[in-house]
Design goal:
By secondary structure, the protein is of the alpha/beta class. Helix content is 41%, strand content 14%. The strands form four sheets. Strands 5-8-11-2-12 form a five-stranded parallel β-sheet. The chain has a three-stranded mixed β-sheet with strand order 1-4-3, with no helix packed on it. A two-stranded antiparallel sheet has the order 6-7. A hairpin with a 2-residue loop joins strand 9 and strand 10.
C-alpha cells in the first residue's frame, strides 16, 4: 500500500502502450533485450520510495518529472533530515529501463537519430540494449573537468593519442543529474550548468580537443535555505520548486522513526515489504508515459493557467508552459481522461512559487500568495 499522499498509482486503469516508433533502417537489435543489472547482494538496497511518510508535494513533483522530463527539473528546499535525498535516490530505483545504443558513452536513443552523438552517426549499424535510467550525483567539490569531461590522460601518455574522457554531464544524458546542497554550488559550475541546460549540448574546447555531445537531463537539486539562496538564473531553470518541512504531528514523527529503524536493522526485509507498492508506482509511470502524448489540454484549462500567471505577475511565459506540462503529466499519472482545473490547483504552488517577484507590501510568503490566487482564479 502506498504511503498516505495524493499518489493514486494503484487505481490506474490498464492502459495499452502506444506503438513504438518506426525503427530507423540502420538500427539492428542486439538479440534479446537485456534487463537492467540487478543490485549485488553485498550492496545495501535503497530506501523504498513508497515507504516515505508524508512529503506528498515532493513525491508528486518527482513523479511528474519522471513522467515528463520536459517540465524542467525539481528543486527541493527545506529542513535538514526531511527525506530529500532519500526520496530522490528512491525514485531512481523505480524508473523503467530505457533503450540505448550499445557501447555509446552518452546512451543515445536508437529511435532518435537526430539526437545522436558523432560516434553513433558515423556507425553504419547500431545495436540496441536496455539500460537503467542514469541518476548521477554532482558533488559540490567536483572540478570543471570532472563535470564536462577532459583529455584522457592515460591514453595520451601510453599511446600518444588525443581522446576524450566523458564527464558527469555525459553520464547524465537522458537521465537525472542530482545536486545536493545546490545553493552552495560554485558560481563557475552554475554558469556551466545554465549553458548546458539551455542548449542540451555540452561543448568542450581544451587541450586541442573540440567535442560536442548531447547532454539532456532532468536537473534535481536539494538544499537548506538557511545556508544560502540560489542564484536567480539557476532557480528559473527548475520547473518545479518544492518546500519540505519537519513533521509537527506526533504520529507522523513516530512512523518515520519506526520505518527508518526497521530499514537500518534489516534493509533487505524492509524493502521486500514495500516491493509490491514500488512495482505499482513503476507500472503507473510506464502507463503514464504511454498515454501522455495523446492527452490534450482543454482551452479552458490553458486559459485558467494564463489567468493565474497574470494575477501573480510572473515574468515571461515559462510559468504557463510549466503549469500546462505538469498538469498534463499529473493527469496522465492518475489515469484521467482530461486535464482539469483540479490538476492545475494541485501543482500551481510547485510550478509558480519560485517565479514570483518579492512584494515589499505583502508580508506573506510566495506559497500563500499562490494559494490565494488559486482560490480567487480557480475557485479551489
Amino acid at each position: 500500500m502506498i504511503v498516505n499522499g495524493s499518489i493514486r498509482a494503484m487505481s490506474l486503469k490498464p492502459v495499452s502502450a502506444t506503438p513504438p516508433s518506426e525503427t530507423p533502417p540502420i538500427l539492428r537489435a542486439a538479440g534479446p533485450v537485456k534487463a537492467p543489472r540487478a543490485q549485488t547482494a553485498s550492496a545495501t538496497p535503497t530506501f523504498p520510495f513508497s515507504a516515505i511518510v508524508g512529503q506528498d508535494e515532493m513525491r508528486r513533483a518527482l513523479l511528474i518529472a519522471a513522467v515528463d522530463p520536459s517540465v524542467g527539473g525539481v528543486l527541493v528546499f527545506g529542513d535538514r533530515g526531511t527525506g530529500k535525498s532519500t526520496a530522490i535516490r528512491g525514485l531512481a530505483a523505480l524508473l523503467p529501463p530505457m533503450a540505448a545504443v550499445v557501447g555509446c558513452p552518452y546512451a543515445c536513443d536508437p529511435g532518435r537519430p537526430a539526437e545522436h552523438c558523432h560516434r553513433c552517426r558515423e556507425q553504419a549499424v547500431l545495436r540496441a540494449e536496455s539500460v537503467p535510467v542514469p541518476v548521477v550525483d554532482l558533488p559540490l567539490g567536483a572540478t570543471e573537468d570532472r563535470v564536462v569531461g577532459a583529455l584522457d590522460l592515460e591514453r595520451a601518455l601510453t599511446r600518444g593519442e588525443k581522446a576524450f574522457e566523458p564527464g558527469l554531464l555525459a553520464r547524465a544524458n537522458r537521465g537525472f543529474l542530482y545536486i545536493d546542497e545546490v545553493n552552495l554550488l560554485e558560481d563557475h559550475l552554475v554558469d556551466l550548468l545554465l549553458d548546458v541546460a539551455a542548449s542540451g549540448v555540452n561543448t568542450v574546447e581544451r587541450e586541442g580537443l573540440s567535442i560536442r555531445h548531447p547532454a539532456r537531463f532532468v536537473l534535481v537539486g536539494s538544499g537548506n535555505p538557511e545556508e544560502g539562496e540560489l542564484r536567480p538564473q539557476l532557480l528559473d531553470r527548475f520547473g518545479l520548486a518544492v518546500e519540505v518541512s519537519t513533521p509537527t504531528d506526533l504520529p507522523t514523527r513516530i512512523d518515520v522513526v519506526r520505518r527508518r529503524d526497521a530499514y537500518e536493522r534489516d534493509p533487505a526485509a524492509f524493502c521486500a515489504g514495500y516491493a509490491k507498492a514500488d512495482r505499482a508506482i513503476r507500472k503507473a509511470l510506464t502507463a503514464a508515459r504511454a498515454r501522455l502524448p495523446a492527452l490534450a489540454v482543454p482551452d479552458a484549462t490553458l486559459e485558467a493557467a494564463a489567468r493565474l500567471c497574470l494575477a501573480l505577475g510572473t515574468d515571461g511565459l515559462r510559468g504557463e508552459l510549466t503549469l500546462m506540462r505538469t498538469a498534463r503529466a499529473l493527469a496522465a499519472f492518475e489515469g484521467a481522461e482530461t486535464v482539469g482545473l483540479d490538476h492545475l490547483a494541485r501543482i500551481a504552488p510547485s510550478a509558480l512559487r519560485h517565479r514570483l517577484r518579492r512584494n515589499p507590501l505583502d508580508e506573506s510568503g510566495s506559497t500563500a500568495r499562490v494559494a490565494r490566487a488559486v482560490e480567487d482564479i480557480l475557485g479551489q
